[in-house]
Structures are given as C-alpha cells and as structure tokens.
Amino acid sequence: MNFALQTAIDALSVGSIYALSALGIGLLFGIMRLINFAQSEFVTIGIYILMLSAGIWFPLAALGAICVVVVLALVVERLAFRPIRTADPATLLVTSFAVSYLLQYSLVLIFGARPIGLDILPDLARPFVIGSVRVPRIDIATIGATAVLLSAFALFLRKTRIGIEMRAAAVDFRMARLLGIRANRVIAVAFAMSGLLAAVVAILFAARTGVAAPTIGLELALVGFVATVIGGMGSLVGAVFGGLAVGVVTVLLQALLPPELRAYREAFVYIVVIAVLVLRPQGLFRGAAARERV
Amino acid sequence: MALLKVSNLSASYGPIPALRDISLEIGEGDTLAVVGANGAGKSTLTLAIAGAVRPTQGTIEIAGTDITGWLPEKVAFENIAVVPEGRHIFDGLTVEENLLLGLTTRKEGGGSAKAFDEVYSMFPVLQERRASQATRLSGGEQQQLAIARALLSKPRLLILDEPSLGLAPIMVDTVYSVLKKLKEIGVSMLLVEQNPARIGEIADHVIVLTGGSVALSGRPEILERQALEDAYFGTSKAATP
Questions:
Q1: Helix (H/G/I), strand (E/B), else coil: B236
Q2: Whose C-alpha in A38, A102, A243, B215 is 20 to 30 A from the C-alpha of A200?
Q3: How does residue A98 score in pLDDT terms, banded at 50, 70 and 90?
C-alpha cells in the first residue's frame, strides 16, 4: 500500500513536469505547426538564471528566471520564427534546431560543458513523513505548482478574449485570421506562455536535480514532443494528458520492471508509445494537425 | 464607385495556376453570384479577396482602397466577412465563443449584447444552443452559426462560399431567407453557389468561372441551360455584362 502510494505520487510528480513541457510544445504546434526544439534551451537557460541568482531571495530569483525566459521566447519568435512563419513545417523545424543549437552552444561558451551544481530550496529535498509513507516535498510542490498553473492556463484560455482567440487559432488558424484575429499577437502570446511554462519547468527541475548543464533540457523537450504526439498533435488537453501518461508509465516501469531490465526503461516507455500510436494513430485526443496553416 | 473592384487578378498554388486574369465589380448593396465546376477557382477567388491567397498579378480594391496582398486579418478590418466552404466552425469552442470571435472587427458601438441580440433574433436556434459545443450542431445549424459569426462584424461585403452545400432543402430555405433579408438591408454579397434557382432569387449579376477564368458574365438569366453548358464546357462566346 505504502509502495503504491509513493509510486503514485512519484508518477504524478514526474508526469506533471512532462505535462508542462508538453503543453509548452503543444501550444506552439497547435497554432503554428511549429515543433519548437528550442523549448529545451528555454528550460536550460531558466536553470542557469537560477544558478546565477544563488543567494538572492528565492521568489525574486524565480521571478527573474521567468522574466528572462519569457523575454527570450519573445525575442526568438520575433527574430527567428516570424520571418519564416508561412514557410513549410520542415523549414520551421530546421530553424528550431538551429535556434536550439545556437542557444545550447552559447551556454557552453559562457559556462562550459560540465554540469554545475546548484542548491535551490534545499528544504524541498526533505520528505514529509506520514505514518510509514515518505513523500518528498519536491513531489508535492511539483504537483501543486502544476495544478495551479494548469488551472490558471485553463481559466486564461476559457475566460479571456485572447485565450479564446488562441484556442480558435489552434483549431483553425486561417479561419481565425479571416475573422480579424491578429496572427502576430496570438503567436507572441503563445511564445510568452511557452516561455512561462519552460521557466516553471526549469524551477521545478532545478529543485529536483540540483544541476545546471547545457543539455539538461533536451530530454524534457523530447518527452514533451512525444507527449504531444501521443496526446494528439494540436490538442492542448491531449498534450497535458500525454505528458502525464509518459510520466506515469516511466515511473511505473521503474517501479515494476525487474532490476536487471531497469537500465532499458526508456526502451519500454517507447514501446508503450509505439503501441498507443498503432492503436490510435491520431493520438489519444483528436488534434488539429491535419488542418491547413496560413 | 464600386464597393469591390477586382482587376486582372491571377493566383496560383505553386506552379499550378488557379485564377487567370479575373476582373469583376460589386456595387454597394449588390449581390454577385459566382458559379463554376469543381476546380474552376471559385473558392480561390473568395480566399484571394479575403487575403488568404496571395495574388500573383492584378489588384483588389475595396471602396477605392487597394488591399492587394494585405494579410487576412487586415482585410477583415475593412469589414469584409467570409463564410468559407465547409463552414470552419471552431471545434472545442461553444456557439457563443464562436460568435464572440465574429465581433473582432466590429466598429459599430452598442456593445456585444446588442450585437448578439441581433443575430439571435435572426437565428433563434443559436440562442437556444449558445452554451453547446459548436461542432455538436447539425450541418444546417452550423451554417447558420457561420453566417451569424460573419454578420456580427457588420460587414460591408459578405463573401459566402457555397452556403447551401450539403444542407437539407428546408435549411437551404432558412439560409436563403436570411440572405434575402441581408440584401434588403443593403449588405453587398459575393455568393458562390451552384443552384441556378437560388441564384435567381438573390443575385444581381453572375459570373461563370472555368479553369480559373471568367467564361461568362451577365444577368442571372445567363444561367439558362445552354449558356451555362457552353460556359462549363468551354464553348461560350465572349462575356456579355
């Protein structure tokens, strides 16, 4: 029972980080048909900002990381993606790789390739002990932060004018534009939101791992991409559930696989992903990937 | 001055030409019907006017303003509303949210409540189902929603691409009774339609497209059988406005 409860909390915690990563990628894909691999560097840079903010009151450091990553996302949109917005998805993808590598090697130049330790919110490493169950505080913080952020996003997307415009643009961008919805504004807000999500992932991931490294965000971006595919490309709800699902499967496999097979856990995760896509090629939720982009 | 003036318009999808040297005009309060076989360029024409397809040649003017090459959202702010083929209702949004987006370019005051009242009086079913997911509406109701969404912008020019396509006859009657009301209050329309009887009810002028070109042009009476067949099969003589 205790093992099951601890595994469930761990699964939900890992799934939460993956869900936030997937939402950041899914948001941009839904609107622009852009798979933004530079999302991984948004996370990585957020972690480096936290490292540089060592000694500063944590809420201020977190706010600083969020501001830097959101501004970075807006700059990347304006300089790299806006000029090629109407290009085909392959061009957008290659550009996102280029931006990703540019940012990654800029970090290598500045900070070096070696991982650097950081210690933010050390109290989160200590567990809550409830009876015989030990629950790491970082898991509770991750689940709580994700629940708050996803609820805020849901409210934003449902109750605000720009949120409704973004949902419409994610479904049918051309029709949205024919109604007068400004592409520049919707896309800029989407990039800002993906930057905000990346910064929150950076904070949670840095608190969990205690490491800053130039490639630390890569795995999260890859998982985020896989999660958006199995959730249903273009579906925001699908991206969140896809991320949660990948996290839950990852942790369950870690818990249930025989010790000698745990080294191959990722292979089993991707077998599950392939099985899902064979059964539901369109993903768990119907997305708008097939619709035309302007 | 014509409300819409299209001069020598050409457009293509990559190397494939879709429109060739199209010229047309729509006066204030007039309705122009566009007919033609599948692939004739009707939808491309509507999308080019709305800014969603970039012309390779020619000009598009709205009340004397050259809007050629403008982005679709900028064209929309010239109060040109589009009801595209297939309706393009937003999946995952409610009826009311779909309608709300129709207010994006509305310049006339009075608030959204008044604007909603206007369209709900025209389409009562939308008021009844305003909280429903829009894609759960029937085809006819979705068509009403698409037209209502376009009307919320108070358009000077309403572009409708096959509004009766796939609808039951009773729904087609409903749609056309609304279009006649719009005509009565002076809304200019560009109507892509295949049904000659319906065109006769509402259009002041007709053009027939074949292979991306204007094959025939004139009063709705030109749609009498032989002339239409000639135009469809490319055997017509010069256009006669």
A1: coil
A2: A102
A3: very high
**Residue B15, class by beta-carbon neighbours within 10 Å (0-12 exposed, 13-18 middle, 19+ buried)?**
exposed
Across A161-173, average pLDDT: 91
Amino acid at B103: L
**Pairs of residues, one from chain A and one from chain B, whose beta carbons lie less than 8 Å apart:** 67
CB-based contact, B78 to chain A, within 8 Å: no
Q: Is B145 on the interface with A (CB under 8 A)?
A: no
Cα dihedral B135, B137, B143, B147 sign: negative
Structure confidence at residue A32 (pLDDT): 85
Domain B1-78+156-241 has CATH 3.30.1070.10: no
Q: What is the ipTM of this complex?
A: 0.90
Distance CA A66, CA B194 (A): 55
Closest by Cβ to B52, choosing from A168, A181, A294? A294
Per mean pLDDT, which of A134-138, B108-112, B222-226 is the most reliable?
A134-138
Break chain B into its structural domains and give their ranges. Answer: 1-78+156-241, 91-155
Contact with chain A for residue B87, Cβ under 8 A: no
CA distance B132 to chain A (A): 14
Residue B100 with chain A: CB contacts under 8 Å: 161, 164
- Best of B43, B54, B83, B88 to disrupt the A interface (most A CBs within 10 Å) is B88
pLDDT tens figures, A202-242: 999 999 999 999 999 998 989 998 998 888 887 888 899 99
What is the crossing angle of helices A265-279 and A236-256, to 10°? Answer: 140
Residues of A in contact with B153 (CB under 8 A): 179-180
The residue type at A19: A
CB-nearest partner of B100 from A164, A177, A180: A164
pLDDT bracket for residue B239 (50, 70, 90): very low
Q: DSSP assignment, residue B224? A: S
Q: Give the pLDDT score at B149.
A: 95
Contact between chains at A177 and B153 (C-beta distance less than 8 A)? no
The torsion of the CA quartet B126, B127, B131, B137, rounded to 10 degrees, works out to: -20
Query: Under an 8 A CB cutoff, do B77 and A164 touch?
Result: no
